[in-house]
Amino acid sequence: MAVRVRYAPSPTGSPHVGNLRTAIFDWLTARKYGGQFIARLEDTDRDPERYKPEYINEIERSLDWLGIVPDEWWVSGGPYGPYVQSERLELYRTAASAMVDTGKAYPCFCDEERLAELRQANRRGGAATGYDRACRALPETERQRRLEAGEPHTIRLAVPDDEIIEYTDLIYGHVSVHSSTMDDQVILKSNGWPTYHLAVVVDDHAMGITHVIRGEDWMSSLPKQALIYAALGWEQPRWAHIPLTLGPDRKKLSKRHGATRFTEFIDAGYLPEAIFNFLVLLGWSSGSDNVEIMSVEEIVERFTLEGIGRTPAIFDYDKLIWMNSEHLKRCPIERLMHLCLPHLAAAGLCGHELQADEIAYLQQALPLAVERMRLLPDVVDQAGYFLRDPQEPEEKGRNKWLNGEPARARLRASIVACSSMVDDWTALRLEAMVNAVAEGLGIARAPLIHTLRVATSGRTVGPGLFEMLEVLGRTRVIRRLKHAISWVQE
Ligand code: GLU
Fold first, then answer.
1. What pLDDT is recorded for position 482?
2. Which residues contact 323 (CB under 8 A, 6 or more apart)?
3. Which atom of ligand 1 is found nearest the CA of 22?
4. Which of 58, 274, 372, 454 could bridge across to 324 with cysteines, CB 3.0–4.6 Å?
5. Active site residues
6. Where are the alpha helices (DSSP H) in 183-260?
7. Residue 127's pLDDT band (boundaries 50, 70, 90)?
8. What is the pLDDT of residues 64-93, one digit of tens each?
């Protein structure tokens, strides 16, 4: 069987990080089992308070950023299109009327006023707010008469009175629900638009979806959808509901905990592969060795649907930052350059277009800077001093390592030593130079190293001093050492 999975976002809110996590699991399943990944836009909820076309752009931007390209979707089309529900209304109407014909659904003429009264009465009685099935009991002749008269009506699902609805979820196992707990849900609204349950079933069937993989919050809609499948005589797909992500306090992940909109993570400067890695590990375990940092290819290699657990996963923001820093360190230098350049340019540290020598310099500096970066914008802080001579040293560095005559003597001796190093400006040679200068001054290496670091970078912490000096280069180092003499305080 050719696997076909779908991601079915609704443009009724900025895409949530949990929603993209579902897309990742869908995509992974398709890749792993050699199937097709389909994206379908579920845009039947047109409440102007919720529906906004810009959310469609955000969905597209998020998928694109993750590197997840659907095999079939509304952007590139495909053999089962259109992939936008508002362009498929006829299909839902046909399905609804087929269900009416077989008695699995019925027209409901109750107006909003009556339904509101019913809800109120239900609330007063403390009962579940279900529909009282008044129109289901209408005599056939009356029903026909009212339909012919063109009376506005919805179509409701005729839930059987006494039936056990059963299905198997690949993650949660066998589930059964008694039909008496279910409401006669509206499947087609009076304006001819479907509700979610009908549209999703019709489309998943029509698009040949074999596996419905989605968030656990959709588990409760499964019995209704199972009934619609049965009513239409269609075979159900396989179901896999993915446990929800919770905040560190074990409550549903929300704004209170931190960023939740996917685009916030893009804009914050995470790497797509880090977000991908992190989201996959929320609920899925990589195997007995519990490897955590993985490339997308490694994840595809290791992925199985069975590896998804049932326990809700905790969204640990600190862990995400750590993962991002690990992925940054593994990022190939050309790509790192490409990703960092806009940040450096925006901070005025370099131009948007670099000369060959600037590229070569940054290619050496970035691997040192990246060791201390957590997010992409950190490059400004961590690589800035490679590009621009520090104007002022850090206060605590000056207080500790740039004091009086001893500091001046360290700087002068180092300037002399560096000036004599005409060739072979390497970390190894620089280390020997520092050892010799310390010996000549009759001091330990440590104070000299600290003084040189503050003098050449303005900072007290950074990469290994000798590697840093090698990258900065002789001219820059000597210039900075000379300038640092003016920083020395009495
Ligand atoms: N349109 C639903 C959503 O916004 C899809 C639910 C499903 O996957 O069935 O998430």
1. 98
2. 274, 277, 278, 292, 293
3. 8
4. 274
5. 255
6. 196-206, 222-232
7. low
8. 999 999 999 999 999 999 999 999 999 999
Which of 22-31, 58-67, 125-134 comes out lowest in average pLDDT? 125-134
User: 121 pLDDT exceeds 90?
Assistant: no
Half-sphere exposure of 191 (CA within 13 A, CB side): 6
Q: What is the DSSP letter of 401?
A: H
Q: According to the CATH classification, is domain 88-242 in 3.40.50.620? A: yes
Q: Find where tokens 């409440």 sit.
A: 47
Say if residue 187's pLDDT is above 90: yes
Q: Ligand 1: which atom is nearest the Cα of residue 19?
A: 10
Rounded to an integer, what distance in angstroms lies between the CA atom of residue 411 and that of residue 488? 10
Q: In the numeric block, which tokens belong to residue 64?
A: 């694109």
Counting from 1 in the atom list of ligand 1, the atom nearest the Cα of 212 is: 8
User: Which residue, by CA, sits nearest to atom 3 of ligand 1?
Assistant: 9
Mean pLDDT calculated for residue range 339-367? 96
Does pLDDT of 327 surpass 70? yes
CATH topology of domain 4-85+246-314: Rossmann fold (3.40.50)
Asked if the domains at 4-85+246-314 and 88-242 fall in one CATH topology, the answer is yes
Residues with a CB atom less than 6 Å from ligand 1: 8-10, 42, 200, 214, 218
Residue 142 Cα to ligand 1 middle (Å): 37
Closest protein CA for atom 10 of ligand 1: 9
Question: Model confidence over 34-46: pLDDT tens digits?
Answer: 999 999 999 999 9
Is 259 or 480 the better-scoring residue by pLDDT?
Answer: 480
Question: Domain 395-487 carries which CATH code?
Answer: 1.10.10.350
Domain locations in the chain as residue ranges:
4-85+246-314, 88-242, 331-387, 395-487
Q: Choose among 187, 202, 188, 192: nearest CA to 233.
A: 202
Residues 6 or more apart from 131 whose CB is under 8 A from it? 108, 110, 115, 118, 156, 183, 184
**In this structure, are residues 187 and 156 in contact, taking their beta carbons and an 8 Å threshold?**
yes
Determine the Cα–Cα distance for residues 387 and 140; give it in Å rounded to an integer: 83
CA nearest neighbour of 460 among 478, 446, 477: 446
C-alpha 277 to ligand 1 mean position (Å): 23
| Average pLDDT for 124-144 | 88
Ligand 1 test: best mutation among 50, 218, 220, 224, most atoms within 8 Å of CB?
A: 218
CA 12 – ligand 1 centroid, Å: 11
Q: What residues contact residue 139 under an 8 Å CB cut-off, 6+ apart?
A: none
Confidence of residue 286 (pLDDT cuts 50, 70, 90): confident
Alpha carbon distance 180, 160 (integer Å):
8
The gap from C-alpha 413 to its chain's centroid, in whole angstroms, comes to 53
CA angle 253, 255, 258 (to 5 degrees): 85
Structure tokens at 146: 């009212």
How far apart are the CA of 200 and the centre of ligand 1, in A?
A: 8
